[in-house]
Each structure stands twice: as structure tokens, then as C-alpha cells.
From TrEMBL:
This is TIGR01244 family phosphatase. The lineage of its organism: Bacteria, Pseudomonadati, Pseudomonadota, Alphaproteobacteria, Rhodospirillales. NCBIfam families: TIGR01244 family sulfur transferase. One of its GO terms (biological process) is sulfide oxidation, using sulfide:quinone oxidoreductase. It comes from the Bacteria.
Length: 560
């Protein structure tokens, strides 16, 4: 007997026997539901036998038979009603458990998010993508109507999505492109570090989405519920269906604030802040200015995260302000990093360590923030050693800058596009999906081993555009992405260590050393970050002008 837990109210299993019933009761179940018709298999006990054993064990037992592959809307309705009234937890079974978990998935009628239903089913070992439209349609069979069909559909209107749409139109202005995103606002997220350091105002990093989308794209203002790659279709919330010939997936990643216990309740107050949110970056600067003494903590969660240098950028700019204000001597600065190194590319570490020493930062590696008590001003970290065991350590703070754990969006993690870790599974050079050859992905959501930065998306967008059009027969070369990413590490106001690197930590500088030596703090690199990159973002990257971003090309026949 193999019991698989779906949620706290129900588990499912393949066919059980009379001998299994006492074990079911011993495991704490109060109800058994049989979804397998009598006589379906030669080795199958009759429901009556299971029912008699269940009564002896003090269990409620119900017979709701469903023919294999023919779960009707009425069956799902009946299952939901039965489960609602039955003593719980319940165990439902059929031949393999699939019918039972399908009935559960279809019975929720919108009271559980689609992504959660798919995730719980997946955790139990069952794939519900065959009935995803029915789940999205409140458990009933939808009319198989298409709400729109396009040559290219782009999911996500962040940096990557707008850049790739613009790069496509720059190459072929006649392409019919739809961009799907429910947002109203577009943010220049690389600027939030400077907002938190008092260099930019928050309003400098925000524009309406309609003002930055290419004029020729169709904007579908909706959230994606699920993907149906075998049908070249996307299911939107509300069970609307969009079809595509080619798909580009780039919705960014999810900031998992809830993964740190107590964090959501105290963000934006009690000295708890984060430059990873538009509305909180100004609070960072407010805290930095007002702190005259005490303990300042800066945290970094396990990888991957967007802009891996951002947590320490906040620390350097804050400490620099305290130096200039003459109060650093009264402030204990600590950096709590869940990883084991200061920065993933070792060539830049010596320059960063000079600033760690200058600001007298207490570096703590292998410390992952797990909970926070804002009113008590205490943070708790799980500290690990090389062997893996961990202990909880508690630290007091007067100010804490938190970098939240990050993962792929829920609708990506549970989709057929995802790898085992939940990221979109692509070839790291062509950014084409490894299974579905009319799908590409770029930006933070895909699984290539590069840094998740806006600079990386700037390089990826032309590669995807080139390769998609090559697949359409409109180009003869294939673009290759070398893993380029850039992290301008703001080590003090007016100086930056310009880290530029690709796959395997290979240094990929954009400028000669005599102009900007990326391994040393540079005033010219600061000028680049403060004055040049914002207009490059708004006026070039988002408009299909590929300054310093042309893809390396190889002949299509050379690509496997």
C-alpha cells in the first residue's frame, strides 16, 4: 500500500486490499473513498469487502466509482460534496490513484489557486496538465474556444520581455506579437540600489507599462494560469485561451517574502527594509540617514537570486554614508550570507575585501535568515557547517536590510516547461527550450547558469530574437549567448567595481583596462551606472537598439 498525501484533508493511493484497512485506520484516516468500479481488474477486491473491513475498523467508507479516463463534471461535483461532509482526513483510491487525485483537483471550484492544485498533485506524484483547462474553469469542462492567436507570444513585460519584443520587431516589423502581463507599471529595478543609497529618487525608476511597450505589440493584460505546449496554447486566468506559433517565456522570478517567518509583518517598519521592493528602497535611505549608532545587519539568501551583488551593494553604500557622517565608529555592520563566498567570481573578491576591511564589516558565511521579530528587533539565522548540520543563532539589530529568498513563479514551477528545480529548461547557448522547439526563454526565469541581471537580459534578447526568426526561416544564422552578466558593485558613493563575466566566471569586460579596470573601484564605472545606463535602458534596450549587445552568430547548420 502506497499512500500519497495531497493536503491535510486527503491522501490518495492505488488499489488497497482488505488487509490494508487496519493499517489505514492506524495511520489516522477516518474515511475511505473508493473511486474504482467493481470488476475493473481480476485481482481487485469488491467494494463490499473493503466496506465491511472499514466498518470493523471504525472508518466511514464510500463508493464513488468512476470509469478510467472518463471523470465527468458531475463526478467531480459529487466527490467535492462527499469530501466536504466526510470525517477527515480521508483516503481515496482507484487503480493507480490518478482518478482520485483528478476528482480532488476538479472539485475545488476556484477555492484553491490553480498553481497550488498543480503543485500539490505534482508533490503526490500526479500530473494534472491533461485537465488543467477544466481546473481553471472551476472544475467544469470549458468550451474549447480560442480568444486569440499570434505568430509570437511573449509572457512577461519586464526588462527581458519588452527587450525581446522590441528586438524581434527591429528585425521584422511585420511580426504579429502579443505580450501577456497583468501589470500596469514597469520598473527600472537596477536603480533601486541607488534609491536606497540616496542617489536616485524612486520616481526615476518607474513608468507606466503602456508607455514603454512597443507600439506594434498586442498587450494582453492578464495573468497566465498554465501552459499547454503540446497544443501551442496558454491558459489565462478566467480560462481564456491564447494560441501561438512560437512562444517566449520571461516573467521574471518570485520574491518569496513569506519564506522568512515574521518578515511580511514587519517590512517597512521596526528598522526592517529591502531594496528589492520599489516602495521600500526609500525606507532604506531613511534608516541609513537616521541611524547614529547600534547594529546594522545585511542578509543574503541561498542562490539563485536576481543581482547577486545587490545585498552587499546596500551594505557598502550605507557604510559609506556612515563614514561621511562620522558615525561608522558607533555602528556595528554585519553581512550574513547563506553562501560560502563574498562574490561568486573570485577575481573581484580582493577589491571587495578592501571595502569590507575599510567599513569593518563582520562577515558571516553559511548563515541563512529564517525568521525575524520586528518589534523585538531580533533576527534568527540557521548556521551550517561543512558537514551540513545547522543551529539557530539569534542576533539583535537596529536596522536590517533583507534580501528575500527567490524562486520561479508558481505557474512556471508547476508547468511542463520547468526543470526539476522549477526553472524554464533551456539550452544555455541558444536559449531554446530543451523539449519544446518552438519555445524560448530569457531573463531571470530560465535555468542557464548565468547571473540573473538586467545586463544579462540585455544580451539575451537579441539572441532569442535572432534564433526565433532563424527558426521561422527569416534569418540564416543562430545567435549564441555566452552567459554574460554584469554587476556594478557600488562600493562607495562615486566608485564602482564593475564586475562583468560569463559562464564559468570567465571575465567578459566591455571596456579596455586602461578605460575601466573592472577589478578595481572606478569613478568612470560610477558615471556609467548613474548617468549612462538608465538612458541606455529606457531608450535602447527597451526599444530594440542593441548597443553593445549584438549576438555572436554561427551558421544554423552548425547547431545541433
Amino acid at each position: 500500500m502506497e499512500i500519497k498525501r495531497v493536503d491535510r484533508d486527503i491522501s490518495v493511493s492505488p488499489q488497497i486490499t482488505v488487509a490494508d484497512v487496519p493499517e489505514v485506520a492506524k495511520a489516522g484516516f477516518r474515511t475511505i473513498i473508493c473511486n474504482r468500479p467493481d470488476g475493473e481488474g481480476n485481482d481487485q477486491p469488491l467494494f463490499k469487502e473493503i466496506e465491511e473491513a472499514a466498518k470493523k475498523a471504525g472508518l466511514s467508507c464510500h463508493y464513488l466509482p468512476v470509469e478510467s479516463g472518463k471523470v465527468s463534471d458531475e463526478d467531480a461535483e459529487s466527490f467535492g460534496q462527499l469530501l466536504a461532509l466526510a470525517p477527515k482526513p480521508a483516503l481515496a483510491f482507484c487503480r493507480s490513484g490518478t482518478r482520485s487525485v483528478t476528482l480532488w483537483a476538479l472539485s475545488h471550484k476556484g477555492d484553491v489557486k490553480l498553481a497550488d492544485i498543480l503543485q500539490k498533485s505534482k508533490n503526490a506524484g500526479y500530473d494534472m496538465h491533461g485537465v488543467v483547462r477544466r481546473i481553471a474553469n472551476n472544475g467544469t469542462t470549458p468550451v474549447d474556444a480560442v480568444d486569440g492567436s499570434f505568430e509570437v507570444v511573449v509572457v512577461g513585460a519586464g526588462s527581458a520581455g519588452i527587450a525581446v519584443a522590441s528586438s524581434l520587431l527591429a528585425r521584422d516589423p511585420d511580426l504579429e506579437i502579443a505580450v501577456i502581463d497583468p501589470a500596469d507599471i514597469h520598473y527600472y529595478q537596477p536603480g533601486w540600489t541607488l534609491v536606497g543609497g540616496g542617489v536616485f529618487g524612486a520616481n526615476e525608476t518607474v513608468r507606466t507599462l503602456s508607455s514603454v511597450l512597443p507600439e506594434k505589440v498586442h498587450w494582453i493584460k492578464a495573468a497566465v494560469a498554465a501552459f499547454e505546449p503540446e497544443r501551442n496554447a496558454i491558459l489565462l486566468e478566467g480560462c481564456r485561451l491564447i494560441e501561438y506559433k512560437r512562444l517566449v517565456v520571461c516573467p521574471g522570478l518570485k520574491l518569496d517574502w513569506h519564506k522568512i517567518e515574521g518578515l511580511v509583518d514587519t517590512l517597512g517598519k521596526n528598522g526592517v527594509t529591502s531594496n528589492y521592493r520599489f516602495d521600500l528602497a526609500p525606507y532604506t535611505w531613511e534608516l541609513v540617514q537616521s541611524l547614529r549608532g547600534g547594529k546594522a545587519l545585511f542578509t543574503q539568501p541561498p542562490m539563485p537570486i536576481k543581482c547577486a551583488g545587490a545585498p552587499q551593494k546596500a551594505m557598502y553604500l550605507s557604510a559609506d554614508h556612515w563614514v561621511r557622517s562620522g558615525v561608522l565608529k558607533d555602528i556595528d555592520v554585519s553581512f550574513y550570507n547563506a553562501g560560502g563566498v563574498l562574490f561568486g567570481v573570485k577575481d573581484y573578491v580582493p577589491a571587495l575585501m578592501e571595502y569590507v576591511k575599510k567599513y569593518e564589516v563582520d562577515l558571516q558565511f553559511s548563515h541563512n535568515l529564517v525568521s525575524i521579530d520586528g518589534p523585538a528587533k531580533t533576527a534568527r539565522f540557521a548556521r551550517t557547517d561543512g558537514e551540513g548540520p545547522s543551529e539557530i543563532v539569534e542576533r539583535e539589530f537596529d536596522m536590517i536590510h533583507v534580501c528575500p529568498p527567490q524562486c520561479a513563479p508558481d505557474f512556471i514551477r508547476v508547468s511542463p516547461l520547468a526543470d526539476a528545480a522549477g526553472w524554464v529548461d533551456v539550452d544555455q547557448n541558444t536559449l531554446r527550450h530543451k523539449t519544446y522547439d518552438n519555445i524560448w526563454s530569457l531573463g531571470d526565469v530560465m535555468n542557464a547558469p548565468n547571473a540573473k541581471t538586467a545586463a544579462a537580459a540585455r544580451k539575451q534578447a537579441p539572441v532569442v530574437a535572432q534564433n526565433l526568426l532563424s527558426d521561422m526561416g527569416k534569418r540564416f544564422n543562430v545567435g549564441h549567448y555566452d552567459g554574460y552578466g554584469s554587476c556594478p558593485l557600488t562600493v562607495e558613493r562615486g566608485k564602482i567595481v564593475l564586475a562583468e563575466f560569463g559562464y564559468g566566471g570567465k571575465l567578459l569586460p566591455s571596456f579596455p583596462n586602461w578605460l575601466i579596470n573592472g577589478q578595481k573601484p572606478s569613478r568612470l564605472a560610477w558615471l556609467l551606472k548613474e548617468k549612462i545606463l538608465p538612458p541606455v535602458y529606457w531608450r535602447a534596450m527597451l526599444q530594440g537598439r542593441e548597443w553593445l549587445a549584438k549576438p555572436e552568430k554561427v551558421k544554423a547548420e552548425m547547431v545541433n
